[in-house]
């Protein structure tokens, strides 16, 4: 939530102009102008002089007196006063009546006094109240000051230099101030004696700026092996060194700031966050890498996190509010930057009824449309204007945006008035434009051609009675109340602006209003339609043709990547662009390229769901497209498919993920002459009593270990069978063939139940996970299919849900991660392709070998991938593509499997074992297991745990099956 810091001192950085820097402050005394020197002496005001890059402030110690700001643009001179006030200038009576101690103090001082001659003084924070600034005009009036405890001349020279620099052209002035800051930064170093623990080790020290709403405070960041420290260049912070324990950091995300990739946001376990801006992207990345790789590995944004949150949301484990907050955070929205503030939807459209019926669809806003498209008449006008725009330039429907600093503060002016005063140059907005009534604001965003703003999270965040909120955080509905009794003005109709006028159903209670809106946000209607709004704000309808179709086009500069600010050398053009984007707002980072699935209907949600056992992201892609015009998507039908199928696939169980232990002492217990040609794939049933195998002899064979005989042999086609997968309920077998088909064999019926023409060339490999089937082919494509449950059987849907043709050569192997989120495919040219099974997109291409990739496996925890090539090379890599280690067997490798610790490899000369822990081969002079496998090339391997002991099946190029236990 937006936090309003209440500093002990009245002066704070929000009082400065945008782009202004605070340098120094000094104890000082003001001698009021327009009085005799004697009166000025007696009415002197003690306080502080604050020297900034574009102005000088004077903050009186007395709270009732206003802070005075002297903008350099209005100051004509800053000079030392040659003749100062002294007792000799007082009348005899005054000298007698004056305090002896004051006289002595004045007599013993040098009475160094300087003057600021100005045409304007801006007064603010009188009685520490937030009210419009008072701009007082003068005709070169001189204000006299003296400094306490410090010599005047060096400080006076600094102020005069700053005044002189302010006379320069804007660009030159900015460059000079930048040089001053850099010089000060070069002298700023941490005093290591101030470290919390003297045993801490200094890891990295860099310059940066701490970012908070409308404020940028430069300083220095220090990383030790235990803590992060920030030391501001000035003394505005309560503590000179702020420290944060690294163990408290829960997440670290790279951020944009001022349109540049130079920001870093750190999130802490207490829900607070810090935002730092660095001078270059290189420095930002350096700090990020040190934190993630060495100091805070727990804070890394994992590849699976986004999919995990999706699953949790679909099943009601997390709320709509929590999921929207997560998406906002992922898309770069932050409470620390008003230009990128989190955005939430209007969900209720009824602000006039006495009671709000959350079971009535008419209560809600149409979430399939952006705000600007809710009113057909307004939209028609905007479309006409759009069509009249020059076709050779980027066109847009809305010249305004749904989120911008002005809109955030429009809602929060009562809670954060000083921020509005800063944004509006010391004034509140016109009373007629001020946030006054929920109903009026809703009417405006539905009808005005220049108002399409959405809401902010504060509208949906009730107080948590079990949570001790930070004193500075907004309480529930507090932003709706004029608790500071601000003078916000009077409207043309004579009404004084005070608390927000709430709808009748809120019963004049901000708490009830927020609680009701939250109920609406979490309602079943919103749950089933929120995915459409996500498509508009964060998803595939944000840009391109889909945005055009959805009437979701905003001013071009608002989109990420619309302008490369680094390439603009003209400072005026750069400043203009930054100002425009800050004014228009910024569109969030696009998170999804495909339609976002809906939340599961309430009766189908499983809040106890195991996170690594969920269905594919795009289960509703096609349906979402078909339902864009309806108020409620037909997600119930879609979701029934999702819920009925989780046991079809062959995903790993906890038992599967038990480590094998030592394999060196296994013995061959059986050898079966099963096929006449190379065995391409084999699987053992969960009861360890049935072996299923397919071969290049085009046969599927089923062998009973219990009866020690073949119980089924089926010729599915006239070409080689390349691969097979067993459904988790073991009622069906999915088989790939060189005749381009995918076959499904019914174990119960003992026959082929269906076949699908999958590719234009041989199906070389396939992998099944729940209801998702991935196939690879010699036609160089990878296809994602959905398996449908039909009565007591299953079948492959007629069309794939994704078809990837990114490979430049034949696909030879595919594998799915244990949690079903990632697929990798190995090609004939040694390239490894990564596919996101949630967004159905290719996310990475990695040239791994110079020859064909023969086999791929994920480790059971999904964090690593082991791959082999036909020329005998093997590599262990992380899922981000980084190589962990590699080795070569100098012979053809056909297949492999792993438990995460041990790697078993099928080669030309039998079985080889390798340790993934040490990176060394496992050998023994007395291993009968290894010796017994060397009689023939191994073409396929399957490992199962039977009675907590490993059982290994191998298939050979000669058609034999061997069993080791």
TrEMBL record:
CDD domains: Beach (cd06071), PH_BEACH (cd01201), WD40 (cd00200). It holds the Pfam family PH_FAN. Keywords: Repeat, WD repeat. Residues 298-599 form the BEACH domain. Residues 618-635 have a biased composition (Low complexity). WD repeats lie at residues 672-713, 756-788. This is BEACH domain-containing protein. Residues 615-635 are annotated as: Disordered. Signal peptide: none annotated. Residues 197-292 form the BEACH-type PH domain.
């Amino acid at each position: 939530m937006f936090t309003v810091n209440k500093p002990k001192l009245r002066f704070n950085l929000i009082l400065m102009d945008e782009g202004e820097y605070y340098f120094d402050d000094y104890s000082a005394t003001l001698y009021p102008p327009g009085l005799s020197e004697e009166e000025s002496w007696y009415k002197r005001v003690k306080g502080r002089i604050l020297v900034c890059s574009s102005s000088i402030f004077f903050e009186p110690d007395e709270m009732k007196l206003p802070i005075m700001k002297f903008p350099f643009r209005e100051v004509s001179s800053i000079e030392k006063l040659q003749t100062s006030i002294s007792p000799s200038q007082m009348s005899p009576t005054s000298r007698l009546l004056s305090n002896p101690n004051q006289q002595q103090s004045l007599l013993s001082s040098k009475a160094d006094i300087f003057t600021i001659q100005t045409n304007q003084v801006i007064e603010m924070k009188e009685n520490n109240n937030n009210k419009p600034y008072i701009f007082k005009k003068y005709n070169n009036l001189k204000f006299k000051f003296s400094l306490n405890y410090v010599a005047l001349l060096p400080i006076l020279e600094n102020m005069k230099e700053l005044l002189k620099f302010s006379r320069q052209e804007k660009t030159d002035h900015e460059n000079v101030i930048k040089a001053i800051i850099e010089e000060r930064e070069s002298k700023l170093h941490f005093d290591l004696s101030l470290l919390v623990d003297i045993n801490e080790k200094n890891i990295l020290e860099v310059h940066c700026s701490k970012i908070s709403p409308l404020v940028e405070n430069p300083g220095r960041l220090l990383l030790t092996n235990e803590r992060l420290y920030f030391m501001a260049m000035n003394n505005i912070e309560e503590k000179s060194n702020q420290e944060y324990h690294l163990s408290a950091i829960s997440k670290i995300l790279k951020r944009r700031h001022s349109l540049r990739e130079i920001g870093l946001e750190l999130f802490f376990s207490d829900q607070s966050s810090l935002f730092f801006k660095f001078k270059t992207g290189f420095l930002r990345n350096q700090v990020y890498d040190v934190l993630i790789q060495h100091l805070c590995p727990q804070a890394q944004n994992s590849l699976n996190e986004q999919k995990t949150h999706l699953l949790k949301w679909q099943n009601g484990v997390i709320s709509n509010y929590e999921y929207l907050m997560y998406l906002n955070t992922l898309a770069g929205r932050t409470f620390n930057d008003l230009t990128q503030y989190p955005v939430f939807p209007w969900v209720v459209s009824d602000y006039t009824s006495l009671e709000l019926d959350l079971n009535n669809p008419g209560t809600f806003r149409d979430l399939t449309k952006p705000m600007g498209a809710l009113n057909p008449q307004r939209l028609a006008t905007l479309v006409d204007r759009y069509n009249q725009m020059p076709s050779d330039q980027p066109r847009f429907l809305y010249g305004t945006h749904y989120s911008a600093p002005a809109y955030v503060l429009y809602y929060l002016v009562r809670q954060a008035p000083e921020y509005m005063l800063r944004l509006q140059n010391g004034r509140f907005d016109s009373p007629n434009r001020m946030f006054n009534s929920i109903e009026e604001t809703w009417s405006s965003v539905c009808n005005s051609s220049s108002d399409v703003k959405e809401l902010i999270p504060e509208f949906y965040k009730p107080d948590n009675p079990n949570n001790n909120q930070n004193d500075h955080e907004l309480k529930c509905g507090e932003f709706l109340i004029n608790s500071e009794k601000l003078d916000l003005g009077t409207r043309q109709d004579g009404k004084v602006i005070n608390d927000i006028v709430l709808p009748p159903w809120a019963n004049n209670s901000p708490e009830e209003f927020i609680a009701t809106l939250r109920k609406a946000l979490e309602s079943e209607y919103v749950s089933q339609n929120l995915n459409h709004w996500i498509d508009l704000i964060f998803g595939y309808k944000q840009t391109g043709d889909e945005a055009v179709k959805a009437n979701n086009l905003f001013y071009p500069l608002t989109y990420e990547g619309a302008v490369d600010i680094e390439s603009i050398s003209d400072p005026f053009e750069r400043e203009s662009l930054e100002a425009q984007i800050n004014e228009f707002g910024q569109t969030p980072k696009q998170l999804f390229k495909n339609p976002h699935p809906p939340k599961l209907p309430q009766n189908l949600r499983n809040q106890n769901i195991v996170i690594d056992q969920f269905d594919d992201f795009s289960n509703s892609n096609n349906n979402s497209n078909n339902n864009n015009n309806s108020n409620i998507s037909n997600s119930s039908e879609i979701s029934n498919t999702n819920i009925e199928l989780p046991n079809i696939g062959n995903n790993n169980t906890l038992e599967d993920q038990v480590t094998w232990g030592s394999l060196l002492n296994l013995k061959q217990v059986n050898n079966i002459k099963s096929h006449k040609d190379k065995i391409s794939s084999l699987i053992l049933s969960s009861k360890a009593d049935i072996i299923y195998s397919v071969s290049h002899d085009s046969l599927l064979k089923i062998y009973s270990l219990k009866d020690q005989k073949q119980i089924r042999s089926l010729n599915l086609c006239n070409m080689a069978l390349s691969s097979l997968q067993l459904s988790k309920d073991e009622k069906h077998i999915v088989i790939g063939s060189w005749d381009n088909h995918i076959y499904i064999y019914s174990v119960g019926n003992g026959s082929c139940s269906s076949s699908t023409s999958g590719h234009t060339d041989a199906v070389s490999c396939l992998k099944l996970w729940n209801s998702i089937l991935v196939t690879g082919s010699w036609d160089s494509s990878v296809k994602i299919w959905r398996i449908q449950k039909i009565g007591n059987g299953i079948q492959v849907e007629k069309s794939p849900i994704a078809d990837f043709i990114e490979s430049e050569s034949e696909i030879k192997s595919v594998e799915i991660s244990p949690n079903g989120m990632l697929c990798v495919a190995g090609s004939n040219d040694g390239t490894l392709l990564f596919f996101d099974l949630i967004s159905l997109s290719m996310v990475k291409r990695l040239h791994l070998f110079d020859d064909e990739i023969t086999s791929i496996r994920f480790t059971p925890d999904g964090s690593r991938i082991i791959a082999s090539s036909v020329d005998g090379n093997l590599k262990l890599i992380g899922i981000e593509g980084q190589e962990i280690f590699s080795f070569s067997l100098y012979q053809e490798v056909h297949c492999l499997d792993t438990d995460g610790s041990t790697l078993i490899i099928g080669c030309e000369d039998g079985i080889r074992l390798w340790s993934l822990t040490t990176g060394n081969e496992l050998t023994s002079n007395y291993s009968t297991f290894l010796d017994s496998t060397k009689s023939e090339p191994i073409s396929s391997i399957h490992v199962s745990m039977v009675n907590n002991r490993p059982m290994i099946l191998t298939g050979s190029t000669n058609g034999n099956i061997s069993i080791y236990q």
